[in-house]
Amino acid sequence: MHVVVTRPAGDAEPLKSRIEALGWRVTLAPLIEIVPEAIPEDILRGATALIATSRNALSEALKSATDLPLFVVGPGTAAAAREIGFTKVIEGPGTGSELVPILASRRAELGARPVYLRGDVVAFDIEGALAEAGIHVRAANAYRSVAAEHLNPAVIKALQNGNIDAVTLMSPRTAQTWARLVANLSPPVQLSGVTHLCLSERVAEALGQPEKACNVLVASYPNLEEMIALVKRLAANSKAE
How many structural domains does the chain have? Predict the structure, then answer.
């Protein structure tokens, strides 16, 4: 069995190794490139807490702020924060929307000047949701994401030969990029034999028209463990056929 992992280069290895441990072949085909941005010093100066909804927002440049409370979206971002040196890490269940009530219930720890470290494209408007709860944050772009313009040639060849069984899609933008690049292939390829393993319903919806013409499985919860569960489910179904 052959799986294409589309995560950015720095994030792909945990998923790749877990799938390979199940005996599947994996091809890496990053569809989003993460480009770090310099966080203005004046934004961090006087910050009373930090918020991060992606591990991509965290870097060694934050070493001077590791004594601040850091609210993160889920376990993966929490682990990355602790590696940098943060000790006051408050971990959410896994999504931006689920982090909001935690932030609202811990206003004292947020303080008067919380800073939200974000990317240039976000899946959930956490700033707006917090504003509705009466919490105002300063936002700083810690990274930007650049969509790929071409598919990995090895993936194109495998698609043309019908040698791909599944593709992992971890964000709406990644799904949109995959759908766009596949649709632009010439000659056209058939996706009827490819199962799209999607992190959430929003990711599946972002496939757009191709979703109607291909197989889609959606994780029961948006985290790495549930994506692995999807791979196991697909493997079990394949053996049963």
Answer: 2
Question: Judging by beta carbons within 10 Å of its beta carbon (0-12, 13-18, 19+), is residue 99 exposed, middle or buried?
Answer: buried
Residue appearing with tokens 């800073």: 115
- Its domain, for residue 13, covers 2-31+148-240
Phi and psi of 115, rounded to 5°?
-120, 130
Return d(Cα 210, Cα 219) in angstroms, integer. 19
Give percent of the chain above pLDDT 70: 96
pLDDT in tens, 79-102: 999 999 999 999 998 888 999 999
Q: Does the N-terminal peptide bond of residue 187 adopt cis geometry, omega within 30 degrees of 0?
A: yes
Q: Is 132 found in the same domain as 174?
A: no
Write the pLDDT tens digit of every residue in 149-176. 999 999 999 999 999 999 999 999 999 9
> Which pLDDT tens digit goes with each residue over 121-147?
887 899 999 999 999 999 999 999 999
Same domain, 181 and 213: yes
132/42 same-domain check: yes
Residue whose C-alpha is closest to residue 81's, from 51, 65, 58, 102: 58
Total count of residues recorded for the chain: 241
CATH number at 121 reads: 3.40.50.10090
